[in-house]
Amino acid sequence: MSEIIKTEAVVLSKLNYGDTSSIVTLYSKDFGKFSAIIKGGRSPKSKIGLIIEPLNYIQVIVYIKESRELQFISGSDMISYFPGIREDFDKLKYSQAVIELLKKLTAEHEINVRLFKGVVRIISLIESSNELPVILFSRFLFFFLTELGYGLQLDKCPICGRTNLGATELSYNYEFGIFCGDCKKNHLETGAVTPELFNYLLCLKTSKKIEANRVGTAETAITFMEKHLIYHVPDFKGIQTLRILK
Ligand SMILES: [Zn+2]
Asked: How far does residue 159's CA lie from ligand 1's centre (Å)?
């Protein structure tokens, strides 16, 4: 079965193919992640080739055949190319980290409109908001974990069910997540969760305002959530962008 669809998408990657063509991978609203070939896409006369560059937010017309590995793109229009991000090292770094997560951790053809909207929203905020890119990225990562089904439980201890966790000493292990001080007596912890980290994670959960002086905690929270993801997702070895672009 084949069909032609028009959908919004964010460009994840672009590679040369043969002498004149390109192979691109897109994360789209209506068809999830997919790869496509743009024949003649490297010619300066190819409008599609010019528009489909990594990070661009675009609209595409795709000729879809699910059994095929590479789809065909027959048209595209630019929605935004985020000029502010391309001029700022930190903005670029954290936008690329978002792109890397989508590339590595979403499944082909799996549609998730809420995740797609979250991606467009976070990239738009990195482009134009006054909030620091590192804090915005920590917000995205918290949301992304939840969308993937590995969300952090913060409202009660997963072992004994105790609520109001902010008032107790907290631990973490990969199996249970964050658990209370009483349960620590009978369960191994991978590490402690400081009140500062817990409070920061709560701010992410409730979308509260975060002061710019909490960059250190933002970085700790990102590392914490990254480790959680590494444990739960086989073959995921962490967000390389954050190591390469320091
Ligand atoms: Zn407990």
From this structure: 5
